[in-house]
Amino acid sequence: MKRRDFLSTVTVGSGAMAFARGSAKRPNLVFLLADDMRFDACGFMGNKDVKTPNLDRLADRGVVFDRAYDTTAICMASRAQLMTGKLEFSTGCNFEHGHMSMPIWEESYPMLLRKSGYFTGFAGKFGFDVEPQGKAKGAHVVRPCFDWWGGWMGQGSYEVSANKDAVAWHEKHAGEKEHTTRALGVLGQDFIQQANDSGKPFCLSISFKAPHTPYATDPRYDEVYNGATFAKPENFGPEAAAHLPKQPFAGRPPTKGKGWVKDFDGTSRQYHQMVYGMDQAVGMVMDELEKQGVADNTVIIFTSDNGYFNGSKGFAGKIYAYEEASRAPLVVFDPRHPSAGKKQRVDQLTGNIDIAPTLLDLAGVKVPFGMQGKSMLPMLGNPGHVNHQTLPLINVWGARPAHSLAVVSRDWKYVNWFYGADGYAPTEELYSMQHDRLENRNLATSPEQRRTLDALRKQYDAWLGVWAQEGVPNNGYRKYIRLADRTFDWSSADPELVETMGAIDEAARNGAGKKVNEKKAQKKARKKGMG
């Protein structure tokens, strides 16, 4: 089936309505992105043990989306999706797969907004590469695509002066040593001042490194959680994972979770101090908007590139389709909209692929047909508006047995661990999102839920059809059209083809994926029509 028959048409007109109700000026846009921030690691999501005063202030003014999912829960892939509005198989971008092509990057929100007259800036962890252009690669490719640049390509350092590509910092603050999270607040202030003088509407994107490991906390906040204790998640510890199939234990999360299980309070203090530092930087940006007199015409969006287990199920890290890893906090605050200040919440599905079309819609820029995400603006005034009946949750990185494709709806989540070699058998999970958000009871074998299972299987098949129709032809994504097919016969799978899936489970459990000769592996896959 065609995707346009399966998904409803992308919304392109609500931005114009925004202008009709507000001023003739196009709004300024600020997009703030956390790294590895669990959906409930903030006060506005009901966590009474944490302090996030500025994010809570933003949530009180804006609209909170309670069912926001990162359709691939790992930084490189998710950040590519956030900027392009495309699912991973359509960006071609993830670890062990490859860079984003220039034609895809040219239809990202930063590129389209700049072309439409916006003054654009980026600060922080960019997180993925665009394919080299001649001798230019890395930051030398993407930096010229912005009017102002204070970013770096990879993980970077928590000492900002060590991030050599952060040009805006070195130009204005040369020689100054500062914690990177705080420095991003300073850079946000610098940009707003410069952008306000440009006479153009502006778009600022800040991608924080926090609270990603290592937990290099800012000493100025050492007293915030000194001696604090935290309530453990209801599904904390390995015993909460006893019902899971063996596939998720092949990947990194069980190994990474040992520190959280051993010292939950100590690890939580470090993690939430990292979040607190980021919250303070968010406050710096919000206050500068007020100081410059542009707050009333500036839309702010905050979310995270993925969630984090924080000891739930005994895991840490992300990558899986389970709620703790794939859900993220999400707030949209448009001061011009009637929803402002009403503490509105939305329980319908949204995804990271919705960020780019929302930003374009706000600016009155036509959303490209190739974006699979949809503008969230209709949901601001109508919390019951449905953007997505279902969303796919993808993991084709790391340990081969832990590769999975899932489908989440408002009421259900279906997970297919499709790997069937090396003693593994494809395994399904089915969870009620209305009655079991902790995912404690797998109903995939329940006779009472057979109709539900069959319905979710059809949605799964449809999304795999989207993969076939709209996936990139390279970077190792084509093979999954067959490998993830529920009817694929693993007994006849070519061992060389299976090898192209990436890391072996033993290497992944030890925290390092097997080095795969990508060129050789993809050549083999293409010969079989599955590269």
From TrEMBL:
Region annotation Disordered: where it falls in the sequence: 241-263, 510-531
- Name recorded for this polypeptide: Arylsulfatase
Report if keyword Hydrolase is assigned.
yes
Q: Which regions are flagged for Basic residues bias?
A: 521-531
Keywords assigned by UniProt?
Hydrolase
**Which Pfam families does UniProt cross-reference here?**
Sulfatase
- Provide any one GO MF term from the record: arylsulfatase activity
Which parts pass through the membrane?
Answer: none
Identify the Gene3D superfamilies for this entry: Alkaline Phosphatase, subunit A
Q: Which CDD domains match?
A: G6S_like (cd16031)
The region annotated as signal peptide is none
